Structures are given as C-alpha cells and as structure tokens.
Amino acid sequence: MTEWRDWAAWRRVTAVSLDTVSSAASVGAEAAEAIEQLARSVSTYAPESYPEAIVDALDLLIDRQAVRAPVLALCNELYLTLGEGADRVVEVAGEFADRLASSTAKIGSVGAHLIDEGVTVLVHGASSSVRSVLDAARERSSFQVCCTEAMPGGEGVEMAAELTVAGFDVEVVDDRSAVELLPGVDMVLSGADAIGPDAAVSKAGIRRLAIAADLAGVALYLTAGRDKVLPSGLFRITAQLGGRQALSEIVPLEHFTVIVSDVGLLTAAEIAELAAERTVAEELKF
Q1: Cβ 4 vs Cβ 10: under 8 Å
Q2: What pLDDT score does 30 carry?
Q3: Do 98 and 110 share a domain, yes or no?
Q4: Of 102, 124, 159, which residue constitutes the final position of a domain?
Q5: Which residue among 105, 153, 183, 241 is least packed, with the fewest CB closer than 10 Å?
Q6: Which has the closest alpha carbon to 121: 175, 181, 165, 192?
C-alpha cells in the first residue's frame, strides 16, 4: 500500500524533488515543510503507514536532491528521528524549516560588519547568503560591487542585474579577468553549496580565484548556514554529485579567511568540530 502517494503532501514532496532552480536553502526549507505536512497527514489519517511513507519521501529527496547540502542534512536528521514516531518527525522538520528560513538574514547581519565604507567587493556566484550580506552592509556603508560572470552557469550576470536594479554600484567581469583585478579589490565573497570538515563545494572557478586571492593577500569570505556543514560521509555524497554537474568545485577551507555563518564567524577548525559533532544515519552510509 502506498496510499500516501495520492495525498497533497506527497505531491508537494515530489515538486520539491524536481526543483532545479531555487537556492539550496530554499529547497531545503520547502522539503522540510513538505515532510512536516506528510508526517501530520500520516499521523492523522494513516498511522499504520508510518514510517514507510516518510522513508519513501526521504528516499525520493535523496535520489533527486542530494547535491543540495540542506536537503541531505534534513534527510539525515529525519532518518535519525524515525524511531521516535510521526509527531517527533513533524517537530524536527518544522524546526529545520524555521532554522533555514531565518539563517540567510542572520548571515547578512554577521557579514555586514566586514564591509567598510568605500571598499570594493568582488562577488563570485549568486548566493542568497552573499546577497543578504550585501543588503545588510548597504544599510551602514557605501561600496562598489564587482560580480564575476560565474560561468558556465552565468549566475553572476543574474546577480549583477538584480543588484543593479536594487541600486548597487555594480560592474560585471569575466572569470579570468577577475583574477587580474584582485590587487584592486578589498575582499571576495562567495557562497557555498556544501561544507565538509576541511573543504567546501562552491561555484566553478572558485578554486583559481581562491589561490589567487591567497597570493594577493585579499580576504576571501565564504557564506553559508550551519545546515550546509556536513560530516565527511555526507559531504562526499554531495561533493561527488556537484562535480558531475560541472558547475562546482571543491576548495580546501584553508583558503578562506573565515566562514560567515548564521551562528557567527567560524574558522576552519570550528567548522571541522561542527562537522565532527554530527551523526550519520545508517541509511546514508553508502
């Protein structure tokens, strides 16, 4: 019996699993809300289908969205929670969704103080957390933004257009020229798709930029919420999937000045500690 596949909650889970446009944080939050709705429906209408219905949904999300760290982190938390019943799944999924919904704004508040009056900020990619930092910083200072094109996806062009509409002073540079411009910028900002104990997955082109920033003595900041920090086993999964899509690269954390998160500015050592604290569910030990 798979009666839950006829429910509105299941259709919501399916829609999330097919989302290739929204940010990782947005997909993660929507996935958590969909699982919360499904678990409520199971508890109310078909308690005998627990935990099969939840496992069915988690397996679908893992199969289609494991490249997105927040989704992988959500599924891991829920696999670990299954033994505590449907009501506990509702609670954990709801907390996860709330945490993701607030993390972007918190990252902006933390990172805004890194941007001083009159500086030039080089942005790589189109991370929502980077955008949050820029928005929060503009409330206290004026500065110039340079966006790399971030090919092959071209997300940087879209980011530049959005920032221009919002009233920022923006210039777009091709990815190769960005390296040559480093001596004239004050800092580099980039988002992360996932963070492991000693490395991060970010947009293609970040590795070359990180090495060059190191040599030029330019601060390189990585922005990401705590739910993108994964233990080594889970990080390996999302890193491999991201690499196959040729839209991302793995960069050692040692290249980043600091990681700007929703719980403060974190060093590479603190990220390693956070990743080590997380338990991997047996279902995800491939």
Answers
A1: yes
A2: 96
A3: no
A4: 102
A5: 183
A6: 181
